[in-house]
Design goal:
The complex is a heterodimer of chains A (307) and B (226). Chain A has 307 residues and is mainly alpha-helical. Chain A is built from 14 helices and no strands. Chain A folds into two domains: 129 residues, no CATH class; 177 residues, no CATH class. In chain A, helix 8 packs antiparallel against helix 9 and helix 9 packs antiparallel against helix 11. Chain B has a single domain, classed as P-loop containing nucleotide triphosphate hydrolases (Rossmann fold), CATH 3.40.50.300. Chain B contains seven helices and nine strands; from the N terminus they run βββαββααβαβαββαα. Chain B is 33% helix and 26% strand. Chain B has 226 residues and is an alpha/beta fold. In chain B, helix 2 runs parallel beside helix 3. The chains are: A mainly alpha (307), B alpha/beta (226). Chains A and B meet through helix 7 and helix 10 of A and helix 2 of B.
């Protein structure tokens, strides 16, 4: 069991190393980023502790995936398997519970730990064979797969928007909007096999336009309830802010797609990831990044799509 | 006509293919045979444009890639994509519209099920269906009979005949010699980076004997099973 956990640490270490960052610095950045995001949630939202708790628990559900658990059951005897699951879930929510304790939300910290332990006795088995219906079936694959992986996120975000409207908390509504955008962007985080690009009888320009158009259309469908809620139920003065967030969100979806294909089949390198991060803090940078990534993506796709 | 001249491929310092010369005419089925690791898949990937290479590949159409249907040895399927969505993706990619997938489901696959949950043979059949739906002119089929049941095997053979009659170019690989005998017009023996021998249907036994003559009995004897 000790070996398993040290192996997990090594894997994380290697991931950061492959990303082109000195692992110790990488860990420091991750911790700093984590604290920054957590502080931002607590600073801007009234029900922050509940949202924070939900995020932690929802993310810990990933540890209950079928493939992982089949693998773990193959590796460990039943007793050791349950120990690993409980320990993993506990360790996973530890940063969340620690921050909740720091914010003196002790009951929530206790709840998150109890729930995490309870969740270790369940996994997502059975979901694998059930085909989840999706409205995006005509244009596979990113939104089809993404929607099936995160279908539960959107009702949650819509509920948050509803709560935001009920308690007149605009920041909470914007949080839902950002959450929806992050979710849509995550659909483009995985690199597909080369065949799935090669098979297109399109020029690189047509291919990218097709990908971007599909992403903008489908993300608009998913974002629509939140956008309508924010536009109609909050004062007119917030409309411009909502429009700005929508515009930026769509731009970041484009950047994610362009970033992915400008490096394919490699992952986004550190310099590029850094540029994307900076553009979140300083959005005018997008005006420079989008054409740059577009040009690179065209060049990169040229070797795959034109031969 | 699809003609390959002086095609060479290496991975770093390791030469995989060197000076390959092949010609494929419409309405012909060509089989590429060779041991595991001989370079058959690499050759197929080079023809399809999935691998960079030296030498020339010429076809009457300007962009050969857009008219090639490539069946991989082990087709990769994305998670949480149904069989039908996979076919839709392949058709969308080639701008093929209004396909009735249920009617075209020649292998009677469970199209509403996630493709990743299919068996090896079912995956192969799904990928082959996708390639067929694209209305390609050239078919590069890497081990199309691998893992497929007898009934489907017969269907594939009939499909190949139909494609041949329609004047398509078909290049395939297989380790099952009887299947090659049934389907191919020409066989090309790939060994030590090169096409060692090309024979017509009536002389397939030459290649069969060449492949059998690999001294394996001696190797088994030396293995010294206890």
């Amino acid at each position: 069991m000790n070996f398993y956990f040290s192996l997990q640490f090594k894997r994380m270490y290697r991931h950061i190393d492959e990303f082109g960052v000195i692992p110790l610095i990488g860990f420091a950045i991750l911790i700093a980023l984590y604290i920054w995001v957590s502080e931002a949630i607590f600073k801007n939202m009234e029900q922050a502790s509940y949202i924070y708790m939900s995020i932690g628990l929802l993310l810990s559900l990933k540890l209950g995936s079928v493939k992982r658990n089949i693998f773990l059951k193959k590796c460990f005897l039943p007793e050791a398997y349950w120990k690993v699951r409980i320990l993993e879930n506990t360790l996973f929510v530890l940063p969340f519970s620690s921050f909740l304790c720091y914010k003196q939300a002790f009951i929530e910290a206790l709840i998150i730990h109890s729930c995490a332990i309870a969740l270790s006795f369940f996994n997502t088995i059975g979901m694998r064979s059930i085909t989840i219906p999706t409205p995006f079936g005509k244009k596979p694959f990113e939104f089809v797969i993404g929607f099936r992986n995160t279908f539960w996120v959107f009702p949650l975000l819509y509920t948050l928007t509803f709560i935001a409207i009920s308690v007149n908390n605009y920041n909470l509504g914007i949080f839902s909007l950002i959450g929806a955008f992050v979710c849509c962007m995550s659909y483009y985080s995985k690199q597909e096999p080369l065949y799935y690009i090669w098979v297109h009888s399109m020029s690189p320009k047509e291919f990218l336009n097709h990908k971007i158009k599909t992403a903008l259309l489908f993300s608009s469908i998913l974002l629509l309830p939140i956008a309508i809620g924010l536009s109609f139920f909050f004062p007119l003065s917030t409309l411009q802010i909502t429009a700005l967030f929508l515009l930026l969100g769509f731009c970041f979806i484009c950047v994610t797609i362009l970033g992915k294909y400008s490096n394919y089949p490699s992952q986004v390198p550190i310099a590029q990831a850094f540029a994307m991060l900076i553009s979140i803090l300083f959005p005018p940078l997008l005006l420079l990044i989008i054409p740059l990534f577009y040009k690179r993506a065209i060049k990169n796709l040229n070797s795959i799509l034109t031969c | 006509m699809l003609s390959i001249t002086n095609l060479s491929k290496s991975y770093r310092k390791k030469q995989i293919l060197s000076a390959i010369e092949l010609q494929f005419n419409p309405g012909e089925i060509h089989g590429i045979v060779g041991e595991n690791g001989a370079g058959k898949t690499t050759l197929f990937k080079c023809i399809a444009g999935l691998e960079s290479h030296e030498g020339n590949i010429q076809y009457t159409s300007v962009n050969i890639k857009n008219t090639i249907g490539f069946l991989e040895t082990n087709p990769e399927f994305l998670s949480k994509i149904t069989g039908k969505e996979y076919l839709q993706l392949l058709c969308n990619a080639r701008n093929i519209k209004d396909v009735n997938f249920e009617a075209q489901n020649i292998f009677e696959l469970p199209l509403k099920q996630y493709a990743e949950t299919y068996s090896t043979g079912m995956k192969k059949k799904l990928a082959l269906t996708g390639v067929l739906l694209q209305n390609n002119n050239i078919f590069i089929l890497d081990e199309p009979f691998n893992g497929v049941d007898i009934h489907s095997n017969l269907i594939i053979k009939e499909l190949l005949k139909s494609l041949k009659e329609k004047g398509k170019i078909i290049v395939l690989s297989s380790h099952i010699f009887s299947t090659l005998e049934d389907t191919c017009d020409y066989l090309h023996y790939l060994k030590d980076e090169k096409i060692k021998k090309t024979v017509k249907k009536e002389n397939f036994s030459i290649i069969e004997n060449l492949m059998k003559d690999a001294g394996f009995k001696e190797k088994i004897k030396n293995f010294n099973i206890k």
